[in-house]
User: Fold this.
Amino acid sequence: MYGNPAFRLQSGMPLQGGERRRDARLSMSIPVHVHGYESHGDVWVEVSAAFDLCSGGASFLLEREVVVGQVLRLDLPLPRTLRSFDPLEPTHRVYALVRNVALSQNGYRVGTMFFGKHPPRGFEANPAGRFLLPWDVNPASAPAPSVHRPARHAAEPELPTDPTGRRRAERFDVLVNLLIQQADEWGEVLKEELTVTDDLGQGGAKVRTTLELVPGDVVLVRESGGPFEARAEVCGASLGADGVRRLHLKFLHGKAPMHLIRKR
Assistant:
């Protein structure tokens, strides 16, 4: 957005549905105040009940129609076990991205993905903008429905499936929401993108991308809505059968915490 290809402002795109989550969901309902943002700066608020809760997102009903990629701020008493920050605050305030919308008899059922304590980059300039994942532009490349592929076990030999053949750490077939940022020597962010992993290990990850990064580029990898971050080197890139590029990343400093892998 505004020169950054990662966040595209789209209109008239079909809403993305389907079941793609991997996190375990809690069968409970809690109150939620939903804050939405208009293009002219006004803020609207609806009170609803959040259900289908997990550490990565929540669903709720709204009277107002929203669209995929829209930013909402949610205020809700989220259980501490599902929080990535502010565990002692009575109300959890988290920015979320709308990931699917379905019309029901009682309004619009909205599924959201928690983004974090702060909104996406570019939100201040355009709060009503749409912040899209790589497959929102190419729906055919979206992750498959939630067929739980078994994680690879430590006893199995690790195959060097990335282009460099240098992988030594075990990888797991898990979906983790990550923010990829490339910065200059002064720390100014040049490119960034919210994406998801195809696989993840303590030593690296494979992620879908629309960014023009090449082997040797160094990026900052942040867990969306969570504490993990690490510098990573682009070791290679490949084109998937769905037509979407993948980046093969090697973490340079710090390893992915096992809770990201085990909880999925």
Q: What stands out?
A: DSSP finds two helices and 13 strands in the chain.
